[in-house]
Each structure stands twice: as structure tokens, then as C-alpha cells.
Automatic annotation (TrEMBL):
This is Acylglycerol kinase, mitochondrial. The keyword ATP-binding applies. Pathway: Lipid metabolism; glycerolipid metabolism; Glycerolipid metabolism. It comes from the Eukaryota. It comes from Nyctibius grandis (Great potoo).
């Protein structure tokens, strides 16, 4: 009778089977996530159980959390997956939640001494925190504080450099939080982007200007097209004036030689009589002549460009701890592309925005000046944050900040360098 009833009501039976299968899969996924959280908390508990001298204060960790990241889900993700690990590790954790865009920059100006800075959010949160940090008067001291990154945003470009790929969101967040406790760090380059009037903005990934970036910003407007929304955004972008060309003038300097890394151990302080002798000698000696280290006009290379997109990116994605030169990659893409190529390349750039297609001009530079014609419209994409397109000077700050990374990623980078 049961089989007959199921056969006679096959539509309801099919719907019930699908609902039970989905419910079972959802419950099993929740169970696996709880096991991952429990294992991560047990590993963090081992750090918290370590004995420290009574005279040694607890390490202070300041967390900058953007609750609006990932469509407002970042706060819940942090409290479920990252916060228990940090509190069990024995750190003195202070969580600072931002309420509006740009608040993190202002909060960094008022931040007191801390041992760790942790960024919980996406690319925009990272860009705000490092900009506020490097705008401080005492940035030379604060830039030495190690920074942790917990990827909670929709776009987390930096996580590809710091942590192994993972399809499970809970595992990705817990791995990133545990990497902060393990203490392994890597130095990352920073771009200083300065306009004529505004204060400088800092980025760890790239500056993009062009048609692919403009079309990529509009992808979310075509959400109703599902998997075709990316191609639709680039296809409708071709209805504008074609070919889309961006005119500019570029001046740049070549790569610079990497100086030796400063030793972490401070040298011992000389005796008192040696210090007094040095101060007296410095006081009575004549003032030293300043050596001009300014770059001469002959050192600059000048280039007139017409491109569909220009990108200036750091080498953080292709991290190499043993290279002898410091430079950023400038990719000038050809302005002659068909509409079909534009749609296909645009879809590829949504997954990897730093791809430099065949036929593009690639330049390695340590510093550049981008001059735009008067009346230029459009926007820059600086670490996926939108800024008005104005003439700017971009300067590479090599190995400026140290970020916590997974020990496996550091070993992988070192092993690739040896090979």
C-alpha cells in the first residue's frame, strides 16, 4: 500500500525526497562545521595554556571588524568562527567595530600601543586600516606592528597570498585565525598613491583604471541573469563609444636594488663614555653637507599611452622573498580589441583581475606618475575601492608591512625560491 501511494502521488514523493536530501545535507554540513570549530578551539587552547612569567604582560590584540562586510554577515561569521579562537589563545583582545565607510582611518589615528593589529573584513577594510596606519605621524614605529587578516568580505584578494585555498568558509576563517597565533609573518609591499590635493592612499594589491574595471563594478546590477550576469555587464558595456580608449601620459623609474634586511636583534648599547664622546664630537663638528638624493629628470622614462585598461600592481601575489630588486608591475593593455574579446576577457578578469593578456605592454617600475587629460571622467579601483580618477603619483614601499601567514604558505614560497 505504501508503494502504491508513493507511485500515485509521485509529484509529492519527488518533492519530499528532494526536501529530505537537502535537509540531510544541510545538517551534515552544520555538523562538519562544528567539528572544525571545535578542533580549532582545542588548538587555540594549547596556546592559552602556555605559562608566561608573572612580570610579562599579556599581548594586546586590536581587531578592526567591519560588520557590513559580506552583505552584513561578517559580524556573525567573526563571532562564531574567529572570536572564540582569539579569546582562548590568551590574548587581550579589543574589538573595534566600524559603523561607516572611512571610520577605520580615523580610529587608527587615535589608536594607542598594541602588539597585534587584526583586520576582520574584506579588501576595503584592509585598505582603510593600512591607510590610517601609514598616515600616522609615528608610522615608522607603528608600521612594524605585525598585522593579521581574517577574510570575512566578499572580495579578499590578500587571502590568496597568506592562506591555502579552501572551499569551506569556516575552515578558511579558522585557518586564518590560527595563523595569527602561530606567529609566522611575511613582508608585503605597499603602494603609496598620492594626488595633487588629497592625503595619500595606500594599497597592498593594485590600482586599476579602465573599461574592464568599470564593467566589473556593474555586474551586481544584473543579478537577475544568474550565471550570465558577468557576460551581460561586459556585453552592455560595449554599447558605449567603441573602441573604448583611455588616454594618459606615464612617467616612471625602473626597479631599485633591494637593500639587505635589517636585523631583528638590536645591537648592544655602547658604554656611557663612548656615547658622551660621540655627542661632543657631533656638537663641535661642522654641520655635514646634505647629499642630494633627488632623482634627476634624465632618470625618468616618459610614455604616451592609449589603452583599454591600465593596472599598477604589487608583486604580493607572486611573493618572492629572495629577489634582489623591488618593483611594481605596470600592465598597459592594447586598445584594439573586438567586442567578443572584451566580453571573454572581462569574465576572466572577474576571477583574476591581474592577468596581463597577450599583446599588452608590461613595465617594471619603482615609481611612476600618471598624468590624465583635463576633463577625464571615470574612477580608479584601488584595492577594489572606488576613487575619483585624477593625476596621481604611485610609489612602491617595499616590504613595508608584515602580515601573519599560514606556515605552509611560507614554506611553499621559500621552497619555490630555492628551486
Amino acid at each position: 500500500k505504501v508503494l502504491t501511494a508513493l507511485r500515485n502521488h509521485w509529484k509529492k514523493t519527488t518533492f519530499g525526497v528532494c526536501l529530505l536530501s537537502w535537509g540531510g545535507s544541510w545538517l551534515y554540513g552544520r555538523h562538519c562545521d562544528n567539528l572544525l570549530r571545535r578542533a580549532a578551539c582545542q588548538e587555540a587552547q594549547a596556546f592559552g595554556d602556555q605559562l608566561i612569567p608573572s612580570s610579562m604582560p599579556l599581548k594586546k590584540a586590536t581587531v578592526f571588524l567591519n560588520p557590513a562586510a559580506f552583505k552584513g554577515k561578517a559580524r556573525n561569521l567573526f563571532e562564531k568562527n574567529a572570536a572564540p579562537i582569539l579569546h582562548l589563545s590568551g590574548l587581550d583582545v579589543t574589538v573595534v567595530k566600524t559603523d561607516y565607510e572611512g571610520q577605520a582611518k580615523k580610529l587608527l589615528e587615535l589608536m594607542e600601543n598594541t602588539d597585534l593589529i587584526i583586520i576582520a573584513g574584506g579588501d576595503g577594510t584592509v585598505q582603510e586600516v593600512i591607510t590610517g596606519l601609514l598616515r600616522r605621524v609615528d608610522e615608522a614605529v607603528f608600521s612594524k606592528i605585525p598585522i593579521g587578516f581574517i577574510p570575512l568580505g566578499k572580495t579578499c584578494t590578500l587571502s590568496h597570498t597568506l592562506y591555502p585555498e579552501s572551499t569551506n568558509q569556516v575552515q578558511h576563517i579558522t585557518n586564518a585565525t590560527l595563523a595569527i597565533l602561530k606567529g609566522e609573518t611575511v613582508p608585503l609591499d605597499v603602494l603609496q598613491i598620492k594626488g595633487e590635493k588629497e592625503q595619500p592612499v595606500f594599497a597592498v594589491t593594485s590600482l586599476r583604471w579602465g573599461s574592464y574595471r568599470d564593467a566589473g563594478v556593474k555586474v551586481s546590477k544584473y543579478w537577475y541573469l544568474g550565471p550570465l550576469k558577468t557576460k551581460a555587464a561586459h556585453f552592455f558595456s560595449t554599447f558605449k563609444e567603441w573602441p573604448q580608449k583611455h588616454q594618459a601620459a606615464l612617467m616612471y623609474l625602473g626597479p631599485t636594488e633591494r637593500p639587505p634586511e635589517e636585523p631583528e636583534v638590536k645591537p648592544s648599547r655602547p658604554p656611557l663614555y663612548v656615547r658622551l664622546y660621540r655627542r661632543l664630537r657631533l656638537y663641535w663638528s661642522s654641520p655635514p653637507k646634505e647629499i642630494s638624493q633627488e632623482v634627476t629628470p634624465d632618470d625618468w622614462e616618459e610614455l604616451k599611452l592609449s589603452t583599454i585598461e591600465l593596472s599598477i600592481a604589487t608583486r604580493n601575489r607572486q611573493l618572492d622573498l629572495t629577489r634582489t630588486e623591488d618593483f611594481m608591475d605596470i600592465c598597459i593593455e592594447a586598445d584594439i580589441v573586438s567586442k567578443g574579446q572584451f566580453v571573454n576577457r572581462g569574465s576572466q578578469k572577474m576571477h583574476d583581475p591581474h592577468t596581463c593578456p597577450e599583446g599588452s605592454q608590461c613595465i617594471q617600475a619603482s615609481r611612476c606618475i600618471l598624468q590624465l587629460p583635463e576633463g577625464t571622467e571615470g574612477s580608479f579601483g584601488i584595492d577594489n575601492e572606488e576613487y575619483e580618477a585624477v593625476p596621481v603619483e604611485v610609489k612602491l614601499l617595499p616590504r613595508k608591512l608584515r602580515f601573519f601567514c599560514d606556515p605552509r604558505m611560507r614554506e611553499q614560497v621559500l621552497h619555490a625560491a630555492v628551486q
